[in-house]
Protein backbone atom coordinates (compact mmCIF):
# COMPACT_ATOMS: atom_id res chain seq x y z
CA UNK A 1 0.00 0.00 0.00
CA UNK A 2 1.39 3.36 -1.00
CA UNK A 3 1.29 6.02 1.69
CA UNK A 4 2.17 9.65 1.41
CA UNK A 5 1.80 11.85 4.45
CA UNK A 6 2.70 15.37 3.40
CA UNK A 7 4.24 17.41 6.20
CA UNK A 8 3.34 20.98 6.95
CA UNK A 9 6.65 22.61 6.13
CA UNK A 10 7.58 20.05 3.50
CA UNK A 11 4.52 20.67 1.36
CA UNK A 12 4.81 24.39 1.82
CA UNK A 13 8.47 24.43 0.82
CA UNK A 14 7.77 22.30 -2.23
CA UNK A 15 4.92 24.52 -3.35
CA UNK A 16 6.95 27.66 -2.75
CA UNK A 17 9.87 26.34 -4.79
CA UNK A 18 7.54 25.67 -7.71
CA UNK A 19 6.25 29.25 -7.64
CA UNK A 20 9.63 30.89 -8.12
CA UNK A 21 10.29 34.56 -7.51
CA UNK A 22 6.80 35.56 -6.37
CA UNK A 23 7.56 33.95 -3.02
CA UNK A 24 10.04 36.71 -2.19
CA UNK A 25 9.27 40.39 -1.59
CA UNK A 26 9.71 42.62 -4.64
CA UNK A 27 10.02 46.39 -4.35
CA UNK A 28 7.80 47.15 -7.35
CA UNK A 29 4.39 48.49 -6.33
CA UNK A 30 1.45 46.65 -7.81
CA UNK A 31 -0.86 48.73 -9.99
CA UNK A 32 -4.01 46.76 -9.24
CA UNK A 33 -6.17 49.09 -11.33
CA UNK A 34 -4.02 48.37 -14.39
CA UNK A 35 -4.09 44.61 -13.70
CA UNK A 36 -7.87 44.67 -13.37
CA UNK A 37 -8.61 46.99 -16.31
CA UNK A 38 -9.38 44.16 -18.80
CA UNK A 39 -11.92 42.77 -16.32
CA UNK A 40 -13.80 45.97 -15.47
CA UNK A 41 -17.47 45.11 -15.08
CA UNK A 42 -16.72 41.43 -14.39
CA UNK A 43 -18.73 39.87 -11.56
CA UNK A 44 -17.26 37.28 -9.21
CA UNK A 45 -19.22 35.19 -6.72
CA UNK A 46 -18.31 33.78 -3.30
CA UNK A 47 -19.91 32.45 -0.11
CA UNK A 48 -19.02 34.18 3.15
CA UNK A 49 -19.77 33.26 6.76
CA UNK A 50 -21.49 35.40 9.36
CA UNK A 51 -18.27 35.86 11.32
CA UNK A 52 -16.00 38.81 12.13
CA UNK A 53 -13.41 38.15 9.40
CA UNK A 54 -16.04 38.26 6.68
CA UNK A 55 -17.75 41.34 8.05
CA UNK A 56 -14.29 42.95 8.04
CA UNK A 57 -13.61 42.25 4.37
CA UNK A 58 -17.15 43.34 3.44
CA UNK A 59 -16.39 46.74 5.01
CA UNK A 60 -13.36 47.04 2.74
CA UNK A 61 -15.01 45.81 -0.47
CA UNK A 62 -16.01 49.28 -1.76
CA UNK A 63 -12.32 50.19 -1.95
CA UNK A 64 -11.55 47.09 -4.03
CA UNK A 65 -14.51 47.58 -6.34
CA UNK A 66 -13.68 51.26 -6.86
CA UNK A 67 -10.05 50.49 -7.71
CA UNK A 68 -10.75 47.56 -10.02
CA UNK A 69 -14.25 47.88 -11.41
CA UNK A 70 -14.76 44.22 -10.44
CA UNK A 71 -18.02 43.50 -8.61
CA UNK A 72 -17.86 41.03 -5.71
CA UNK A 73 -21.17 39.27 -5.08
CA UNK A 74 -21.33 37.41 -1.80
CA UNK A 75 -23.88 35.23 -0.06
CA UNK A 76 -23.70 34.88 3.71
CA UNK A 77 -24.35 31.33 4.88
CA UNK A 78 -24.06 29.43 8.17
CA UNK A 79 -20.87 27.42 8.45
CA UNK A 80 -22.80 24.14 8.71
CA UNK A 81 -24.34 24.71 5.25
CA UNK A 82 -21.35 26.19 3.44
CA UNK A 83 -19.59 23.04 2.28
CA UNK A 84 -22.81 21.48 1.00
CA UNK A 85 -23.79 24.67 -0.85
CA UNK A 86 -20.42 24.82 -2.57
CA UNK A 87 -20.31 21.12 -3.44
CA UNK A 88 -23.79 21.30 -5.00
CA UNK A 89 -22.76 24.41 -6.95
CA UNK A 90 -19.56 22.82 -8.25
CA UNK A 91 -21.30 19.59 -9.24
CA UNK A 92 -23.99 21.55 -11.07
CA UNK A 93 -21.41 23.81 -12.78
CA UNK A 94 -23.01 26.77 -11.07
CA UNK A 95 -22.05 30.40 -10.64
CA UNK A 96 -19.44 30.39 -7.88
CA UNK A 97 -16.12 31.76 -9.12
CA UNK A 98 -14.33 31.47 -5.78
CA UNK A 99 -14.24 28.73 -3.19
CA UNK A 100 -14.14 29.30 0.54
CA UNK A 101 -12.06 26.33 1.70
CA UNK A 102 -11.97 25.11 5.30
CA UNK A 103 -8.70 23.36 6.06
CA UNK A 104 -10.57 20.03 6.24
CA UNK A 105 -12.14 20.55 2.81
CA UNK A 106 -8.89 21.19 0.92
CA UNK A 107 -8.32 17.54 0.02
CA UNK A 108 -11.87 17.03 -1.22
CA UNK A 109 -11.93 20.26 -3.24
CA UNK A 110 -8.49 19.71 -4.78
CA UNK A 111 -8.92 16.02 -5.63
CA UNK A 112 -12.29 16.67 -7.26
CA UNK A 113 -10.77 19.39 -9.43
CA UNK A 114 -13.10 22.08 -8.12
CA UNK A 115 -10.31 24.57 -7.42
CA UNK A 116 -7.31 25.75 -9.43
CA UNK A 117 -3.68 25.55 -8.30
CA UNK A 118 -2.49 29.13 -8.06
CA UNK A 119 0.50 28.34 -10.30
CA UNK A 120 -1.94 28.43 -13.25
CA UNK A 121 -2.68 32.07 -12.44
CA UNK A 122 0.52 33.33 -10.84
CA UNK A 123 2.44 32.52 -14.01
CA UNK A 124 0.63 35.44 -15.65
CA UNK A 125 2.58 38.52 -14.55
CA UNK A 126 -0.15 40.84 -15.86
CA UNK A 127 -2.55 39.73 -13.10
CA UNK A 128 -0.10 38.83 -10.32
CA UNK A 129 1.18 41.16 -7.62
CA UNK A 130 5.01 41.28 -7.90
CA UNK A 131 5.07 41.55 -4.10
CA UNK A 132 2.72 38.62 -3.47
CA UNK A 133 5.33 37.12 -1.12
CA UNK A 134 4.03 33.71 -0.12
CA UNK A 135 6.80 33.55 2.46
CA UNK A 136 5.04 36.38 4.25
CA UNK A 137 2.28 34.01 5.38
CA UNK A 138 2.74 31.91 8.49
CA UNK A 139 4.03 28.62 6.98
CA UNK A 140 1.62 26.58 9.08
CA UNK A 141 -1.36 28.49 7.70
CA UNK A 142 -0.31 28.45 4.06
CA UNK A 143 0.09 24.71 4.12
CA UNK A 144 -2.82 23.72 6.37
CA UNK A 145 -5.41 26.00 4.76
CA UNK A 146 -4.32 26.25 1.14
CA UNK A 147 -1.96 23.44 0.12
CA UNK A 148 -2.54 19.89 -1.04
CA UNK A 149 -0.25 17.33 -2.63
CA UNK A 150 2.66 19.77 -2.93
CA UNK A 151 0.66 22.53 -4.62
CA UNK A 152 -0.83 25.75 -3.30
CA UNK A 153 -4.52 26.12 -4.17
CA UNK A 154 -5.66 28.94 -1.91
CA UNK A 155 -4.30 31.76 0.21
CA UNK A 156 -5.06 32.02 3.97
CA UNK A 157 -7.96 34.38 4.51
CA UNK A 158 -9.89 33.79 7.74
CA UNK A 159 -7.40 32.40 10.23
CA UNK A 160 -8.01 30.91 13.66
CA UNK A 161 -6.14 29.68 16.67
CA UNK A 162 -7.81 28.27 19.73
CA UNK A 163 -7.29 30.64 22.69
CA UNK A 164 -8.45 30.88 26.29
CA UNK A 165 -10.71 33.90 26.70
CA UNK A 166 -11.57 34.68 30.29
CA UNK A 167 -13.17 37.20 32.64
CA UNK A 168 -10.22 38.34 34.69
CA UNK A 169 -12.51 40.23 37.09
CA UNK A 170 -14.37 37.05 38.01
CA UNK A 171 -11.08 35.17 38.36
CA UNK A 172 -9.73 37.89 40.65
CA UNK A 173 -12.88 37.77 42.80
CA UNK A 174 -12.37 34.01 43.14
CA UNK A 175 -8.77 34.54 44.29
CA UNK A 176 -6.87 33.93 41.03
CA UNK A 177 -4.33 36.42 39.70
CA UNK A 178 -3.62 34.53 36.47
CA UNK A 179 -5.41 32.07 34.15
CA UNK A 180 -5.01 28.29 34.43
CA UNK A 181 -1.85 27.03 32.76
CA UNK A 182 -3.08 23.45 32.35
CA UNK A 183 -6.33 21.70 31.58
CA UNK A 184 -6.06 19.92 34.94
CA UNK A 185 -5.92 23.28 36.74
CA UNK A 186 -8.87 24.54 34.76
CA UNK A 187 -11.01 21.51 35.69
CA UNK A 188 -9.92 20.79 39.25
CA UNK A 189 -9.04 24.22 40.67
CA UNK A 190 -10.49 27.09 38.66
CA UNK A 191 -13.81 25.92 37.20
CA UNK A 192 -15.31 24.53 40.45
CA UNK A 193 -14.53 27.73 42.36
CA UNK A 194 -15.95 29.89 39.56
CA UNK A 195 -19.16 27.87 39.28
CA UNK A 196 -22.06 29.27 41.30
CA UNK A 197 -25.01 27.23 40.05
CA UNK A 198 -27.72 29.07 42.01
CA UNK A 199 -26.60 32.30 40.29
CA UNK A 200 -26.41 30.48 36.95
CA UNK A 201 -22.72 31.34 36.69
CA UNK A 202 -20.39 28.62 35.42
CA UNK A 203 -16.64 28.24 35.32
CA UNK A 204 -16.29 27.12 31.71
CA UNK A 205 -18.23 26.49 28.51
CA UNK A 206 -17.12 24.22 25.66
CA UNK A 207 -19.18 24.81 22.52
CA UNK A 208 -20.50 21.35 21.59
CA UNK A 209 -23.46 21.69 19.21
CA UNK A 210 -23.92 18.58 17.09
CA UNK A 211 -22.19 19.06 13.76
CA UNK A 212 -18.68 20.34 13.02
CA UNK A 213 -18.78 22.26 16.30
CA UNK A 214 -19.10 18.95 18.19
CA UNK A 215 -16.60 17.01 16.09
CA UNK A 216 -13.95 19.73 15.89
CA UNK A 217 -14.37 22.29 18.64
CA UNK A 218 -15.39 19.87 21.37
CA UNK A 219 -14.38 16.27 20.60
CA UNK A 220 -11.05 16.84 18.83
CA UNK A 221 -10.03 19.60 21.22
CA UNK A 222 -9.59 17.14 24.10
CA UNK A 223 -7.64 14.48 22.19
CA UNK A 224 -4.30 16.10 21.29
CA UNK A 225 -3.38 17.76 24.63
CA UNK A 226 -3.78 14.40 26.35
CA UNK A 227 -1.57 12.58 23.85
CA UNK A 228 -4.47 11.04 21.94
CA UNK A 229 -5.52 11.28 18.31
CA UNK A 230 -8.31 10.29 15.99
CA UNK A 231 -6.14 8.01 13.85
CA UNK A 232 -2.80 6.26 14.12
CA UNK A 233 -0.08 6.39 11.45
CA UNK A 234 -1.83 3.63 9.48
CA UNK A 235 -5.12 5.55 9.45
CA UNK A 236 -6.70 3.13 11.90
CA UNK A 237 -8.73 4.45 14.82
CA UNK A 238 -6.78 5.49 17.88
CA UNK A 239 -9.80 6.43 19.98
CA UNK A 240 -9.52 3.48 22.35
CA UNK A 241 -5.92 4.27 23.30
CA UNK A 242 -5.41 5.24 26.97
CA UNK A 243 -4.44 8.76 25.92
CA UNK A 244 -7.52 9.36 23.75
CA UNK A 245 -9.78 7.92 26.42
CA UNK A 246 -8.15 10.14 29.04
CA UNK A 247 -9.06 13.20 26.98
CA UNK A 248 -12.63 12.09 26.38
CA UNK A 249 -13.17 11.20 30.05
CA UNK A 250 -11.72 14.58 31.00
CA UNK A 251 -14.42 16.25 28.92
CA UNK A 252 -17.10 14.28 30.74
CA UNK A 253 -15.74 15.33 34.13
CA UNK A 254 -15.42 18.97 33.08
CA UNK A 255 -19.16 19.06 32.33
CA UNK A 256 -19.82 19.55 36.08
CA UNK A 257 -18.61 23.15 35.70
CA UNK A 258 -20.38 23.87 32.42
CA UNK A 259 -23.88 25.23 31.78
CA UNK A 260 -26.67 22.65 31.42
CA UNK A 261 -27.44 21.87 27.79
CA UNK A 262 -23.89 22.49 26.60
CA UNK A 263 -24.57 20.22 23.61
CA UNK A 264 -26.81 22.98 22.25
CA UNK A 265 -24.04 25.60 22.42
CA UNK A 266 -22.59 26.73 19.13
CA UNK A 267 -19.85 29.39 18.94
CA UNK A 268 -22.32 32.25 19.33
CA UNK A 269 -23.79 30.80 22.53
CA UNK A 270 -20.38 30.18 24.12
CA UNK A 271 -19.08 33.62 23.17
CA UNK A 272 -22.25 35.31 24.38
CA UNK A 273 -22.15 33.43 27.68
CA UNK A 274 -18.69 34.86 28.39
CA UNK A 275 -19.65 38.28 27.05
CA UNK A 276 -22.64 38.49 29.41
CA UNK A 277 -20.78 37.21 32.48
CA UNK A 278 -22.58 33.85 32.58
CA UNK A 279 -19.34 31.86 32.26
CA UNK A 280 -15.81 32.77 33.32
CA UNK A 281 -13.72 30.96 30.67
CA UNK A 282 -14.09 29.63 27.15
CA UNK A 283 -11.65 28.16 24.64
CA UNK A 284 -12.60 29.75 21.35
CA UNK A 285 -11.22 30.88 18.03
CA UNK A 286 -9.14 34.04 17.90
CA UNK A 287 -11.57 35.48 15.35
CA UNK A 288 -14.16 36.12 18.08
CA UNK A 289 -11.99 38.70 19.83
CA UNK A 290 -13.84 41.48 18.02
CA UNK A 291 -17.21 40.24 19.28
CA UNK A 292 -15.94 40.07 22.86
CA UNK A 293 -14.54 43.61 22.74
CA UNK A 294 -17.56 45.21 21.06
CA UNK A 295 -19.60 47.18 23.65
CA UNK A 296 -22.72 46.45 21.60
CA UNK A 297 -22.34 42.69 22.13
CA UNK A 298 -20.23 42.35 25.28
CA UNK A 299 -20.35 43.57 28.89
CA UNK A 300 -16.75 42.54 29.56
CA UNK A 301 -14.89 45.76 28.88
CA UNK A 302 -11.54 45.73 30.67
CA UNK A 303 -12.43 42.40 32.31
CA UNK A 304 -11.65 40.53 29.08
CA UNK A 305 -8.29 38.78 29.04
CA UNK A 306 -6.72 36.32 26.61
CA UNK A 307 -4.19 33.51 27.08
CA UNK A 308 -3.02 30.46 25.16
CA UNK A 309 -5.12 27.33 25.44
CA UNK A 310 -4.14 25.34 28.54
CA UNK A 311 -1.53 22.59 28.30
CA UNK A 312 -2.30 18.92 28.76
CA UNK A 313 -0.07 15.95 29.64
CA UNK A 314 1.23 16.02 26.04
CA UNK A 315 1.95 19.75 26.14
CA UNK A 316 0.25 22.87 24.84
CA UNK A 317 -1.45 21.78 21.61
CA UNK A 318 -4.11 24.36 20.73
CA UNK A 319 -6.85 24.00 18.16
CA UNK A 320 -6.08 25.10 14.62
CA UNK A 321 -8.72 26.27 12.18
CA UNK A 322 -9.29 28.57 9.28
CA UNK A 323 -10.04 29.06 5.63
CA UNK A 324 -8.40 29.90 2.35
CA UNK A 325 -9.81 31.56 -0.74
CA UNK A 326 -9.29 29.68 -4.00
CA UNK A 327 -10.28 30.18 -7.63
CA UNK A 328 -13.10 27.88 -8.75
CA UNK A 329 -12.28 25.75 -11.80
CA UNK A 330 -15.80 26.17 -13.17
CA UNK A 331 -15.39 29.94 -13.64
CA UNK A 332 -14.78 31.47 -17.04
CA UNK A 333 -11.21 32.51 -17.82
CA UNK A 334 -12.05 36.16 -17.24
CA UNK A 335 -13.74 35.33 -13.93
CA UNK A 336 -10.76 33.24 -12.84
CA UNK A 337 -8.40 36.13 -13.44
CA UNK A 338 -10.70 38.62 -11.72
CA UNK A 339 -11.10 36.22 -8.79
CA UNK A 340 -7.32 35.80 -8.53
CA UNK A 341 -6.87 39.58 -8.37
CA UNK A 342 -9.45 39.72 -5.55
CA UNK A 343 -7.81 36.89 -3.57
CA UNK A 344 -4.43 38.59 -3.72
CA UNK A 345 -5.91 41.88 -2.56
CA UNK A 346 -7.97 40.32 0.27
CA UNK A 347 -4.95 38.43 1.67
CA UNK A 348 -2.26 41.00 0.92
CA UNK A 349 0.24 42.60 3.26
CA UNK A 350 -1.08 45.96 2.10
CA UNK A 351 -4.62 45.29 3.31
CA UNK A 352 -3.58 43.41 6.47
CA UNK A 353 -3.75 46.42 8.80
CA UNK A 354 -7.19 47.71 7.77
CA UNK A 355 -8.45 44.12 7.73
CA UNK A 356 -7.28 43.52 11.32
CA UNK A 357 -8.58 46.91 12.45
CA UNK A 358 -11.98 46.05 10.94
CA UNK A 359 -12.12 42.81 12.95
CA UNK A 360 -10.36 40.26 10.72
CA UNK A 361 -7.41 37.99 11.50
CA UNK A 362 -4.75 38.17 8.79
CA UNK A 363 -2.46 35.27 7.94
CA UNK A 364 0.43 37.65 7.28
CA UNK A 365 3.34 37.63 9.73
CA UNK A 366 4.39 41.26 9.28
CA UNK A 367 1.22 42.84 10.69
CA UNK A 368 1.70 41.14 14.06
CA UNK A 369 5.23 42.52 14.36
CA UNK A 370 3.82 46.05 14.61
CA UNK A 371 4.09 47.31 18.23
CA UNK A 372 0.77 49.17 18.18
CA UNK A 373 -1.08 46.09 16.87
CA UNK A 374 0.41 43.89 19.59
CA UNK A 375 -0.48 46.47 22.22
CA UNK A 376 -4.04 47.07 21.04
CA UNK A 377 -5.17 43.50 20.38
CA UNK A 378 -4.72 41.18 23.36
CA UNK A 379 -5.17 38.05 21.26
CA UNK A 380 -2.14 38.64 19.02
CA UNK A 381 0.74 37.29 21.10
CA UNK A 382 -0.93 34.05 22.26
CA UNK A 383 -2.27 33.47 18.75
CA UNK A 384 1.10 33.99 17.06
CA UNK A 385 2.75 31.72 19.64
CA UNK A 386 0.26 28.96 18.85
CA UNK A 387 0.96 29.27 15.12
CA UNK A 388 4.64 28.59 15.75
CA UNK A 389 3.73 25.16 17.10
CA UNK A 390 0.26 24.20 15.97
CA UNK A 391 -1.35 20.85 15.32
CA UNK A 392 -1.83 20.57 11.53
CA UNK A 393 -3.63 17.26 12.02
CA UNK A 394 -6.03 18.78 14.57
CA UNK A 395 -8.65 17.59 12.10
CA UNK A 396 -7.57 15.26 9.26
CA UNK A 397 -7.53 17.18 5.97
CA UNK A 398 -8.35 14.23 3.73
CA UNK A 399 -11.49 14.10 1.54
CA UNK A 400 -13.16 11.58 3.88
CA UNK A 401 -13.37 14.05 6.77
CA UNK A 402 -16.92 15.40 6.13
CA UNK A 403 -18.42 11.89 6.37
CA UNK A 404 -16.32 11.04 9.42
CA UNK A 405 -17.24 14.36 11.04
CA UNK A 406 -20.91 13.40 10.93
CA UNK A 407 -20.17 10.13 12.73
CA UNK A 408 -18.14 11.88 15.42
CA UNK A 409 -20.84 14.51 15.85
CA UNK A 410 -23.50 11.84 16.46
CA UNK A 411 -21.57 9.68 18.92
CA UNK A 412 -19.63 12.52 20.53
CA UNK A 413 -22.96 14.09 21.43
CA UNK A 414 -24.21 10.79 22.86
CA UNK A 415 -21.10 10.61 25.02
CA UNK A 416 -21.68 14.09 26.41
CA UNK A 417 -25.31 13.25 27.14
CA UNK A 418 -24.14 10.08 28.96
CA UNK A 419 -26.19 7.92 26.59
CA UNK A 420 -23.05 5.85 25.98
CA UNK A 421 -19.71 5.58 27.77
CA UNK A 422 -16.58 7.03 26.19
CA UNK A 423 -15.45 3.47 25.40
CA UNK A 424 -18.75 2.53 23.77
CA UNK A 425 -18.85 5.75 21.79
CA UNK A 426 -15.24 5.32 20.68
CA UNK A 427 -16.00 1.79 19.43
CA UNK A 428 -18.99 3.02 17.42
CA UNK A 429 -16.99 5.85 15.87
CA UNK A 430 -14.05 3.56 15.13
CA UNK A 431 -16.14 0.97 13.31
CA UNK A 432 -17.99 3.51 11.19
CA UNK A 433 -14.90 5.60 10.51
CA UNK A 434 -12.84 2.65 9.33
CA UNK A 435 -15.74 1.50 7.12
CA UNK A 436 -15.73 4.92 5.46
CA UNK A 437 -11.97 4.83 4.91
CA UNK A 438 -12.14 1.28 3.57
CA UNK A 439 -14.79 2.25 1.02
CA UNK A 440 -12.67 5.24 0.04
CA UNK A 441 -9.79 2.90 -0.78
CA UNK A 442 -7.50 3.89 2.05
CA UNK A 443 -6.58 0.32 3.01
CA UNK A 444 -6.17 -1.39 -0.36
CA UNK A 445 -3.82 0.89 -2.26
CA UNK A 446 -6.49 2.52 -4.43
CA UNK A 447 -5.67 5.92 -3.07
CA UNK A 448 -2.65 7.67 -1.65
CA UNK A 449 -2.93 8.64 1.99
CA UNK A 450 -2.39 12.35 2.11
CA UNK A 451 -2.91 14.64 5.02
Task: Estimate the global geometry from the Cα principal axes.
Answer: globular
Enumerate the spans where pLDDT stays under 50 for 5 or more consecutive residues: 1-27
Q: What's the count of strands?
A: 10
SSE string:
HHEHEHEHHHEEEHHEHHHEHEEHHHHHH
Output the CATH class name of the largest domain: Alpha Beta
The profile of the biggest β sheet is: 6 strands, mixed
Number of domains: 2
Radius of gyration: 22 Å
Proportion of β residues?
5-15%
CATH topology of the largest domain: D-Maltodextrin-Binding Protein, domain 2
Q: What separation lies between the terminal Cα atoms?
A: 16 Å
- The structure class reads alpha+beta
CATH superfamily of the largest domain: Periplasmic binding protein-like II
Q: How many DSSP helices?
A: 19
What's the overall average pLDDT, rounded?
90
Short description:
The protein is α+β, with helices and mostly antiparallel strands. 42% of the residues lie in helices and 14% in strands.
Layout: helices, strands, pairs:
Blueprint lengths: L7 H12 L12 H5 L6 E7 L2 H17 L2 E7 L1 H13 L6 E5 L3 H6 L7 H4 L16 H8 E2 L2 E2 L1 E14 H6 L9 H12 L7 E4 L6 H8 L22 H13 L12 H9 L3 E7 L3 H5 L10 E5 L11 E8 L5 H14 L2 H9 L13 H6 L3 H9 L12 H16 L5 H18 L12
Parallel strand pairs: 1-2, 7-8
Antiparallel strand pairs: 3-10, 4-5, 6-8, 6-9, 6-10
Amino acid sequence: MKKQLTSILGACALAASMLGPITSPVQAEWDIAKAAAPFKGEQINVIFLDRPGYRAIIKLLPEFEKKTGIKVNYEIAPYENTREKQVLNFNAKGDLTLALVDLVWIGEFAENGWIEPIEKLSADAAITDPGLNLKGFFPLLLDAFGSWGGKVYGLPFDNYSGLLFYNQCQLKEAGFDKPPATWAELKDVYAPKLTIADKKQYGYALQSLRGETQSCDSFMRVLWPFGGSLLDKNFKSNLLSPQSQAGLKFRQDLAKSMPPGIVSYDHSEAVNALAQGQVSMITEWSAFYGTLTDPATSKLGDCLAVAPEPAGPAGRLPALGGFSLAVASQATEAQKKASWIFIQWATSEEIARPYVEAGGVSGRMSIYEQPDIKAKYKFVEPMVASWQKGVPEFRPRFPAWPAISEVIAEWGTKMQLNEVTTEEGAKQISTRMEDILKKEGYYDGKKELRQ
